[in-house]
Automatic annotation (TrEMBL):
It comes from Notiomystis cincta. The keyword Signal does not apply. GO terms for cellular component: cytosol; nucleus; perikaryon; SNARE complex; terminal bouton. This is Complexin-2. Belongs to the complexin/synaphin family.
Length: 133
């Protein structure tokens, strides 16, 4: 019979809390919570330090591979490509528009007229007169 009494006593205590009765305040609850938070922060710092060490080891291995095969980092490769694009080449096929000399492709009408004049020179006289009108 005694175990039943203990079970009921424990259950009654919890039931009182559930029904909105006053909770027993633990005087060390705040201190325990602060310790728990500090432990969590410390674990997180240790985890970050561990990952930083692992990444440093990986980077060391990557650098050894780059050195062995003469490869470059992605950032270095992008920087070189960007510099190559900014620096115009002497014999480049693509050049800025303002670098095109005057008279090269700007006046389409004049070129058409000169072609027409050239064709007219080779036509017989009566046909030349027809086209000139």
């Amino acid at each position: 019979d005694q175990p039943r009494v203990l079970l009921c006593a424990g259950a009654t205590k919890d039931m009182g809390k559930m029904l909105g009765g006053e909770e027993e305040k633990d005087p060390d609850a705040q201190k325990k919570e602060e310790e728990r938070q500090e432990a969590l922060r410390q674990q997180e710092e240790e985890r970050k330090a561990k990952h930083a060490r692992m990444e440093a080891e990986r980077e060391k291995v990557r650098q050894q591979i780059r050195d062995k095969y003469g490869l470059k980092k992605k950032e270095e490769k992008e920087a070189e490509e960007k510099a190559a694009l900014e620096q115009p080449c002497e014999g480049s096929l693509t050049r800025p528009k303002k670098a095109i000399p005057a008279g090269c492709g700007d006046e389409d009408e004049e070129e058409e007229e000169s072609i027409l004049d050239t064709v007219l020179k080779y036509l017989p006289g009566p046909l030349q007169d027809m086209f000139k009108k």
